[in-house]
Amino acid sequence: MIVIFGLIAGAILGLRSAHQRGGNRLDKAQYAAVGGIIGALLGLFATIGLEKLL
């Protein structure tokens, strides 16, 4: 669940960032994809960390 939340949150933040910079729809798609990947990776590391602690 943390990975999915990170994916969605990262994509939204990337989309918002591209929109603020005045990017076209391909820029927005690229920023959303990269943000989603970064968010999913951070969520994956958080999940692994929590599993090791519990």
UniProtKB/TrEMBL annotation:
Keyword line: Membrane, Transmembrane, Transmembrane helix
Transmembrane segments: 28-50
Full protein name: Apolipoprotein acyltransferase
Origin organism lineage: Bacteria, Pseudomonadati, Pseudomonadota, Alphaproteobacteria, Rhodobacterales
